[in-house]
Amino acid sequence: MKRSTLAALVIGGAAGFVVMRRGLHSRRVVSRPGGLRLHRGLAAIQLVLRGGARYAGSAPRLFTAAGENRQRLRNDLALQTAEDVASTLGAMKGVLMKLGQMASYVDEGLPPEVRRTLGRLQDSVPPMSAELAAGVIEEEFGQPPDQLFARWDPEPIAAASIGQVHRAITHDGRAVAVKVQYPGIAETIEADLGNVALLRRMLRIIAPGQDVDALLAELRERIAEELDYEREAENQRLFAAFYDGHPTIGVPKIVDELSTQRVVTSDLADGTRFAELTGWSRHEQDLAAETIYRFVFRSLYELRAFNGDPHPGNYLFHGGGRVTFLDFGLVKHFSPDELLPLMNMARFLCVENDPDAFRRSLEDAGFLRPGAPLDTELIVDHLAVFYDTIRRPGELTITGDYASRVVRRFFDVRSPIAPYVQVPRSYVILQRINLGVFALLGELTATADWRAIAEEIWPFVQAPPSTPMGEAEAGWLAGRPHRAETAA
Amino acid sequence: MTADPYAAAVGLVERSAAAYASSVPEHPADDGFFGPGSVTWKLGADLSGPVGGLRSLMIQALHPLAMAGVDQHSHWRTDPAGRLAATYAYVTTVSFGDRAAAEQVSARVRRVHEHVRGVDTVTGQPYAASDPALLLWVHAALVDSTLVAARLFGTPPTAAEADQYVAEMVVAAELVGVPAAMVPASTARLDDYMASVRPRLQCTQAARESMAYLLDQAGLDEDIGEIWRYVRDGAVASLPDWARQLYGYADPGPLTGARRTEIRQALGVMDTVYLGEPGVLEARQRLALRTRAARGA
What we know:
The complex is a heterodimer of chains A (488) and B (297). By secondary structure, chain A is α+β, with helices and mostly antiparallel strands. Chain A has 22 helices and 12 strands. In chain A, the strands form 4 sheets. In chain A, strands 1, 2, 3, 4 and 6 form a 5-stranded antiparallel sheet that branches. Chain A is globular and about 65 Å long. In chain B, 43% of the residues are buried. The A-B interface holds A 74, 76-77, 83, 87, 90-93, 96, 113, 116-118, 120-121, 123-124, 191-192, 195, 198, 201-202, 204-205 and B 47, 155, 221, 223-224, 226-227, 230, 261-262, 264-269, 271-273, 275-276, 281, 284-285, 288-289, 292.
């Protein structure tokens, strides 16, 4: 089966809206009458007055708060030696765990037993003991954490990918989050990634019917990157600098002198977790969703970077639509040549109504085999569903119902276009990220005029602000130094 | 494969996992015959387990009388997974269960063995499963294979640990009816014993068929079958030359470091699958916590 579910996922996700909801409830797409203008105006003023994403309080308060939100980790089973790490995450298990994390965003496509198995594997990894984590710090910086920092909490506050996060206060009084990598894990995983034959077998089991070689190549690259915390710090610096001063988007700043290949230190952030967000008002949830949406697509179109891990644990919410984005371990950068066809697909289908040009963009990007014996109308028919939420203006709720419909379309192997569709390698990872992001939006049953927001962000439209948040963002945009060249 | 006399090994992983999970007690009355800190517990958690288990079956089957007992009396051909899972349940209960549980399963095995007797059609010799000499062979093959597999593909035990393991396991042989005086209690004694039995070993047709079935696993999904082949290659590579020659397997050549790594990786995948079964992770955590508590005490 050459045509993969990925193909459609990627096409849909790239510029359109892929929605997935894991819950069983389905809600109807409801169009709401236009928002409350007066209320919106006030909100815009508030956002501007708050002047950028400074949600941080004092260092001691943050330090304490981050401890209160501690994830429940199995410290009683903590890994005590590098050998413990090797027996827990060696012999392909670390690789499988990462594959599982990545694959979890396409969980509709995973056989249930595979999903269960990979989930269990993640549960099976305990944190490092205080001594083991301190040992990594000492190897990296030449001094133990209680000397390196003014204050150091030996108990981790969160599990991170192949590492864990500790809270600390620096000698100059900054509250920071210190992500420490499991010792020896990079070497183990790199060695395991070398067994291509076995990986190919596993992917065939984990993701049946998909283009295994493309998936494998991309995943190997992404995992290798994720092991390199210096690269992660680099990505986080890029995003933090880009969104500096943004009214609702916050990215914790990296502390350069306390970051290495196995340790990455950034400002400590605190806020409400995704799971608690559903208890907030409808309006607040919509604002949070709008910020996530703006972040994802502005990053794609302007930074040409898709930020990594849309895991619900990687967001902190502060009210008024303000969101802190954590974890830049998985960032996909696109060349202008890779980005252009994605942009053109949205442009020709949604803005210029030019189906032939839409088809050519699909072919240029390698999604659709050139010269496929298919009517363009048929192609549009089958792919337009992925752009449903941005093809027409007006408020729309992203629901689980719409999500399932889209997913069913991807998995429809009897589709007449199926034999001619595939995913070029550089877009494989988009699907994972998109699905994760839109799963979150679906989880919130978020409502907005997505098309209007897209028009603000699309470089080929650059429409004026359509929401209070857009207005606040316009102020930030205007204040940015020489931006023009990034919107290439 | 042509007309296969064996049923497919349906649900082997599931049934083995269930056996393991229930053999590790949630509220043990005592530490059983081994307990935290024992080498038995340590090796019982080793990644090399599947290779050790498969090698053990391959060695055990070379004793014509042991093979005849299995072939003529058990459900081995009609329900191979059930037979393997039952043996596995017995081994794990003796290893991790409290004393009462270990004695109970051992008594059951002894009762079953009472009825397993007959005449081997190949050698014409009478046999009885309760014969301490046969039981000792089965015991020794398991102990030897566990050590060999861990040395090649797992966390290698030190020489002292290996000796301790052989000594610890004497009680397991006693539980099924072998007088302690007969049972090797060091690796040197174990090697001597294995060498002493060698002249009586041969590859009967039943052994050949059983192993062909185990090694091929015809019923497996193609991709899982591919992973199983690593385990099979590991087991064959771990056999002593004489055993490989009896079976007529080609010499796989020296086991390179790269090949060992590949086999370990496949074992890691298998372990992950096993870990995904209900109760396995919790059982391992129970054992780990007890081991830590004992270490700290």
